């Protein structure tokens, strides 16, 4: 048996044993998800334990994002009508998984920010529990071609902060690069909204690319992108539909998951307190409290 596989099996047994002894945390967690926590923590058991605890704690403190999740619900279908969210089928030579997120229309009448974040996390759960391959890193590409200044009025600051804490500190991933393509002239105003919630090390990973530029291809091979971007991975619509089907196939899982993965705070040991959870409640009151210059 390869050494790496021996380490994974040993640490998986250790983390499952630890999890079963945590009275406040859920005990039924997919092995592949636990392996992702170990991989993202570079097989540091203590770091993995803290991330697992925060992963479930954030979810329990954000019921608007993690409860009553039905892939067939009209609000979820509406989000897929006005957005494209898709993991790409092929990885980079560094074994990085690449994702594309974009608005598919400039008409924001049907766009709800909380529903969009909820859908984003449903897609993430589908991938993290169904995809048996653990990549060496992840690279999101945000296409801002259809983002206008009207989008600012759609942002829910509470949901944005929870999204930022969860994706930067609680998800079992290794973020390697972040690309914003087709960046408009006013991208600075949109970035200013996110900046207070960005960790310094994540902010350093962000690269902005102007419309009609090919600078993205210095980091991401064009051939692994969808045909909409001149690549060979199939169309955005085709890839998106495949992931929607995968998500809908997990409907029963989603409908029971909010109960199975709930945290019982009354059973939390005093030694397991995490100050980061307080950030979920310490929210700015309005856009006037954020610098948009």
TrEMBL record:
- GO MF entry, a single one: phosphatidylinositol bisphosphate binding
Membrane spanning segments where? none
The record's InterPro entries line, in alphabetical order, gives: CRAL-TRIO_dom, CRAL-TRIO_dom_sf, CRAL/TRIO_N_dom_sf
- Name the coiled-coil region(s): none
Annotated ranges, domain CRAL-TRIO: 73-237
Gene3D superfamilies for this protein: Alpha-tocopherol transfer, CRAL-TRIO lipid binding domain, N-terminal domain of phosphatidylinositol transfer protein sec14p
Mention any one GO cellular component term assigned to this protein in its UniProt record. Answer: membrane
Protein name as it appears in the record: Alpha-tocopherol transfer protein-like
Phylogenetic placement of the source organism: Eukaryota, Metazoa, Ecdysozoa, Arthropoda, Hexapoda
């Amino acid at each position: 048996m390869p050494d790496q596989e021996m380490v994974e099996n040993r640490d998986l047994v250790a983390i499952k044993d630890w999890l079963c002894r945590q009275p406040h945390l859920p005990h039924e967690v997919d092995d592949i998800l636990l392996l992702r926590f170990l991989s993202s923590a570079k097989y540091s058991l203590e770091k993995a334990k803290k991330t697992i605890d925060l992963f479930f704690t954030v979810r329990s403190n954000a019921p608007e994002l993690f409860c009553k999740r039905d892939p067939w619900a009209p609000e979820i279908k509406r989000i897929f009508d006005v957005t494209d969210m898709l993991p790409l089928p092929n990885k980079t030579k560094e074994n990085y998984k690449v994702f594309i997120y974009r608005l598919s229309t400039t008409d924001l009448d049907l766009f709800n920010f909380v529903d969009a974040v909820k859908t984003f996390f449903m897609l993430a759960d589908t991938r993290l529990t169904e995809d048996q391959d653990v990549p060496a890193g992840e690279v999101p590409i945000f296409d801002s071609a259809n983002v206008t200044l009207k989008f600012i009025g759609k942002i829910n600051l509470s949901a944005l902060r929870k999204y930022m804490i969860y994706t930067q500190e609680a998800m079992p991933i290794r973020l390697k690069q972040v690309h914003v393509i087709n960046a408009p002239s006013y991208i600075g105003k949109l970035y200013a909204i996110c900046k207070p919630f960005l960790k310094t090390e994540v902010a350093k990973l962000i690269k902005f690319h102007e419309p009609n530029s090919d600078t993205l291809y210095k980091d991401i091979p064009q051939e692994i992108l969808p045909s909409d971007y001149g690549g060979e991975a199939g169309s955005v619509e085709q890839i998106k539909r495949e992931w929607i089907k995968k998500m809908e196939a997990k409907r029963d899982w989603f409908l029971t998951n909010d109960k199975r993965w709930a945290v019982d705070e009354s059973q939390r040991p005093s030694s397991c307190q995490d100050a980061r959870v307080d950030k979920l409640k310490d929210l700015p009151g309005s856009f006037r409290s954020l610098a948009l210059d």
